[in-house]
């Protein structure tokens, strides 16, 4: 009986390769992996790749990538330094094959958010995408976060105010209210005859992509970036609400009328001097309630563009 001490490895066999060509990326996608982001456990999907620079090589060692990725699930708070170390290990295990490694992480970060006025709170999830690459000792990382908010159209608000003014004028001319009777005006303003029109609002989405500074040694700044963006927009969507919270949300919308261009410029100025980033690419989408199409605005910035 013939026994083998090792299993066959087809990649080591010397059959001719009739189509030699170096490949940008070879790896695995949609790997399920639980990861701790900002001390919160998130079920993520992970893509892992290395380049195949040898035009004659038959393949990479995918099991080496996979087993190294598994170690990330034991890290209590993911940092860029940890990810950079993983990418270095990818290349170390493929020394003769690869010079370029990449990891993409996709998931949702759940955050508990307080109500505007009441003592209620609720949970909101923020989809994110973290892409990290290492090429010839140059490391770079891009973090994408989606943030939902409300936007009230300034044009629609102006048109609604015009109709309310005309309704007020008609009420005076028809003597339904007396201009010298504040009590009558106060009562009338609380009726549907007074507020005859309301501006249209829409749920909107900010797609924020940040070029992270490689010098960040602390945990990834997900929460700080989210809070900074929501503060700039002023009308993030809410979770649990009572009537007092809904009224506060209506006030926030009324005091922060925004075209898509306004929303993008708010975000631009909020992050132009942010310390943990070296650039960004932003897109805002206002899913119109007036039109059957969306209004969008997009802009980018890097430190070198100043």
Automatic annotation (TrEMBL):
The gene coding this protein: folE2
Keyword Hydrolase: yes
Keyword rRNA-binding: no
GO MF entry, a single one: GTP cyclohydrolase I activity
Listed HAMAP family: GTP_cyclohydrol_B
NCBIfam families: PRK13674.1-1 (NF010200)
One Pfam assignment: GCHY-1
EC code(s) of this entry: 3.5.4.16
Catalytic activity: GTP + H2O = 7,8-dihydroneopterin 3'-triphosphate + formate + H(+)
Keywords: Hydrolase
Protein name: GTP cyclohydrolase FolE2
TM annotation in the entry: none
First-tier enzyme category under EC: hydrolase
Record site feature (May be catalytically important), residues: 153
Function: Converts GTP to 7,8-dihydroneopterin triphosphate.
Pathway entry: Cofactor biosynthesis; 7,8-dihydroneopterin triphosphate biosynthesis; 7,8-dihydroneopterin triphosphate from GTP: step 1/1
One GO-annotated biological process of the protein: tetrahydrofolate biosynthetic process
InterPro entries with a match to the protein in the record: GTP_cyclohydrolase_FolE2, GTP_cyclohydrolase_FolE2/MptA
Family label: Belongs to the GTP cyclohydrolase IV family.
């Amino acid at each position: 009986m013939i026994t083998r001490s090792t299993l066959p490895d087809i990649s080591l066999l010397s059959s001719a390769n009739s189509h030699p060509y170096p490949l940008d990326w070879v790896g695995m996608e949609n790997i399920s992996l639980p990861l701790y982001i900002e001390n919160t456990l998130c079920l993520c999907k992970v893509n892992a790749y290395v380049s195949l620079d040898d035009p004659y090589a038959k393949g990479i060692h995918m099991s080496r990538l996979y087993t190294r990725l598994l170690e990330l699930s034991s890290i209590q708070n993911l940092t860029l330094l940890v990810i950079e170390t993983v990418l270095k290990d990818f290349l170390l295990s493929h020394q003769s094959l690869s010079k370029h490694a990449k990891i993409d992480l996709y998931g949702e970060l759940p955050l508990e958010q307080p109500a505007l006025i009441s003592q209620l709170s609720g949970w909101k999830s923020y989809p994110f995408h973290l892409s990290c690459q290492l090429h010839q000792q140059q490391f770079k990382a891009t973090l994408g976060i989606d943030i939902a908010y409300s936007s009230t159209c300034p044009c629609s608000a102006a048109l609604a105010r015009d109709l309310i003014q005309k309704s007020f004028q008609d009420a005076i001319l028809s003597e339904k209210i007396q201009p010298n009777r504040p009590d009558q005006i106060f009562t009338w303003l609380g009726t549907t005859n007074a507020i005859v029109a309301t501006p249209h609002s829409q749920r909107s989405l900010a797609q924020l992509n940040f070029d992270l500074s490689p010098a960040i040694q602390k945990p990834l700044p997900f929460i700080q970036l989210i809070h900074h963006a929501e503060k700039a927009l002023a009308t993030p969507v809410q979770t649990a609400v009572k009537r007092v919270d809904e009224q506060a949300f209506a006030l926030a919308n009324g005091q922060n009328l925004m075209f898509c261009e306004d929303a993008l410029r708010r975000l631009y100025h909020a992050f132009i001097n942010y310390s943990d980033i070296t650039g960004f690419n932003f897109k805002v989408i206002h899913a119109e309630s007036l039109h059957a199409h969306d209004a969008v605005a997009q802009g980018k910035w890097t430190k070198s563009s100043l």
